[in-house]
Amino acid sequence: MTDGSGGARPALRRCVPLPAGEFAERNWDRAPLLSRRVDDYTDLLDLDDVDELLSRRALRTPFVRMAQQGKVIPASRYTGGAGPGAEVGDQVRDERVFELLAGGATLVLQGLHRLWPPLVDLAGGLGRELGVPVQINAYLTPPGNQGFATHYDTHAVFVLQVAGTKRWRVHPPVVTDPVERQPWGHRADEVAAVAAGEPTIDEVLAPGDTLYLPRGWLHAAGALDDWSLHLTVGLRAPTRLSVVEALLDLAAEEPALRAGLPMGTDLGDGSSIAPVLADTVKALHEWLDTLAPHDVADRWRRTTTSVARPAPMRPVAQAAALARLSAGDRVRLRPGLPVRISTPDPDRVSIEAPDRTATVPAVCTAAVRALLDGAPRRVGDLPGLDGDDRLVLARRLLTEAILILDD
């Protein structure tokens, strides 16, 4: 079974059985979708893996969270000092986790897309296919228990049932398309009122089943008569508000929009603010007319770098390979790294990543374009350069972590 890192099986196919186009048209950001027997997910994470993470991987908060009967359990109840040589006080204590699990608490392993290899690969593949940052958490609930009360998320999710069974109750949103600044806790009374009504979905998920929930849809889930383990794959897709936020960041660089207001202006008084508002809107329109789409795109790329990390690389192997790189070695663009080629002047070509830019002579243009198309390339086959220049270019882009070695 191929993982989500670019093999024969697309990562999206592991989450939903529909063709991508049909899913995009029918369900994406629109409607829930329950699918039966989609896949076996035990290769991604199983109960033995959970024990491995808890007992041997020295996890710390916030990678672990626990809850019971709708309330989050303080981390101090299941974490403590790590012992000699590790001066931290929030390492997970497996015996305390055991006590809480035995008492019916739900365990949440957070950020597994950053630390568990099969889920790193799945998140990377899904992120590249959908063009969105992806996060993955795991939820383990003892038989007959429920960790969290009815709530909604401000991002869409795929639920992948790994082991055991869990009953899901799904209700329509109380807020259409909520964003992060609109968490469910601010509308707890409305959520509770809707949750008291008839659910849109009331089904039991068994191993291999999946559930897609657009952001805002209310949901609660409880384990039945066995231990339930599921993965929640969060899709943090940008919205039109994301474009507005990128514009707001850029607006801070425009002097006309940073100008102070007349002395005595009362922003809480409609008559006082009216002329200021008119002038501000006029200045905003004039500034927006000067923007090019790539200005907004560049700002978005820079501000999302820490959210959507590229595929992992092997720092030691890559560092060791630099000195002995040969024409026979194969390199490729680091998967998941957004890059853009620009020509600041006729003599140079720049490779722009979100947090760095590598500029090389214009004679490298054909080779750069070949390297950045995503396919593995033999260094000795790079077009437009001789042998030594090919090695120099490959070393430069490996050093910038724009390229990685192709194993």
UniProtKB/TrEMBL annotation:
<dbReference type="GO" id="GO:0046872">
    <property type="term" value="F:metal ion binding"/>
</dbReference>
<dbReference type="InterPro" id="IPR003347">
    <property type="entry name" value="JmjC_dom"/>
</dbReference>
<dbReference type="Pfam" id="PF08007">
    <property type="entry name" value="JmjC_2"/>
</dbReference>
<feature type="domain" description="JmjC">
    <location>
        <begin position="104"/>
        <end position="252"/>
    </location>
</feature>
<dbReference type="GO" id="GO:0051864">
    <property type="term" value="F:histone H3K36 demethylase activity"/>
</dbReference>
<keyword id="KW-0408">Iron</keyword>
<dbReference type="GO" id="GO:0032453">
    <property type="term" value="F:histone H3K4 demethylase activity"/>
</dbReference>
<protein>
    <submittedName>
        <fullName>Cupin-like domain-containing protein</fullName>
    </submittedName>
</protein>
<keyword id="KW-0479">Metal-binding</keyword>
<dbReference type="InterPro" id="IPR039994">
    <property type="entry name" value="NO66-like"/>
</dbReference>
